[in-house]
Specification:
By secondary structure, the protein is of the alpha+beta class. Helices cover 42% and strands 14% of the residues. It has seven helices and six strands. Strands 3-4-5-2-1-6 form a six-stranded mixed sheet. A hairpin with a 4-residue loop joins β4 and β5. The longest helix has 28 residues. It is elongated and about 70 Å long.
């Protein structure tokens, strides 16, 4: 099935909205409102329909077939395992057979002033009767790298080194999933946060490196990028120990660079004791 282009998709969305009197206005969120993001076929269409009666859509969902045949769909507000978080709005996350994806949120008219949920990457596509309040031009300023104050810097360091001990404990107990969960979801996250602060120091704190640091590779040297990738090899217990120590060494290096530039204390915090703790137990259990 041929991928429908951006114009075709927006025509499809707006044609439906114009044809259904229950739809009062249409907004757009996300990357397709961001001029700084390169366009590709994987960008979602993050659409909001401000509607007169949400339940009339939910009770008879055949209206979504208008947008095409789907590979898969998720309705988060209908799920029990993952509690809804939109506060009365209802969403349909749809991946179509032509590989386009629409994340469509139904916003009750009573919440029309919050249809964008404070996201500055938003624009109004259709407003049938000047129903919506005007909003500023779309900007990704809320997603810019945030320059840390001293407390945030120290919190990042403390979280990293404290959770390091959880990884050690898990490896020593042969609780591999416990260890890798903390290594990947906690330590790697704090390492990337620290690297992003170094990127901000090098390039300025006035741009975004994307959700989940997806553009960070554009701002670090190839050697650093490859080292970060190597940390993801957790295919054996020995490699997890190696990844842990390498992650600690990288964090220590970047923390020293960031602290030196921002004139924050780091080396006097005593985090090197955790390095010795890690090595002691690695030597004992490997």
């Amino acid at each position: 099935m041929i991928l429908r282009n951006e114009k075709e998709m927006f025509d499809l969305i707006l044609n439906y909205a114009n044809s259904d009197d229950r739809v009062l206005a249409v907004g757009l969120n996300g990357s397709r409102t961001n001029k700084n993001v390169p366009k590709d076929e994987f960008q979602d269409y993050d659409v909001v329909f401000v509607v007169d009666n949400v339940f009339s859509f939910i009770d008879d969902p055949t209206w979504i077939d208008y947008f095409g045949d789907r590979i898969i769909m998720q309705k988060p507000e209908s799920m029990e395992l993952f509690p809804p978080s939109l506060g009365g709005m209802f969403s349909y996350l749809m991946l179509f057979e032509d590989k386009n994806r629409i994340d469509l949120i139904l916003c009750p008219k009573e919440q029309k002033d919050n249809w964008h949920r404070g996201d500055k990457l938003s624009k109004i596509l259709l407003d049938k009767g000047n129903y919506l309040s005007k909003i500023a031009d779309s900007t990704d300023e809320d997603y810019h790298i945030s320059k840390p104050n001293k407390q945030k810097f120290l919190d990042c360091c403390n979280e990293f080194w404290w959770v390091s001990t959880y990884v050690v404990k898990g490896l020593c107990r042969d609780e591999i999933f416990y260890a890798t969960d903390h290594l990947y979801n906690n330590l790697s996250s704090e390492l990337l946060r620290m690297v992003s602060w170094k990127v901000g120091i090098d390039y300025g704190f006035d741009f975004s490196i994307g959700k989940n640091y997806k553009y960070i590779k554009n701002y670090i040297d190839e050697n650093t990028y490859n080292k970060l990738l190597s940390l993801l090899d957790m295919s054996s217990k020995e490699k997890i120990w190696t990844s842990l120590e390498a992650t600690q060494c990288m964090f220590d290096k970047f923390a020293k660079e960031v602290s030196s530039y921002l004139d924050y204390s780091y080396e006097d915090q005593g985090f090197e004791k955790v390095l010795l703790y890690t090595k002691e137990y690695k030597d004992k259990y490997i």
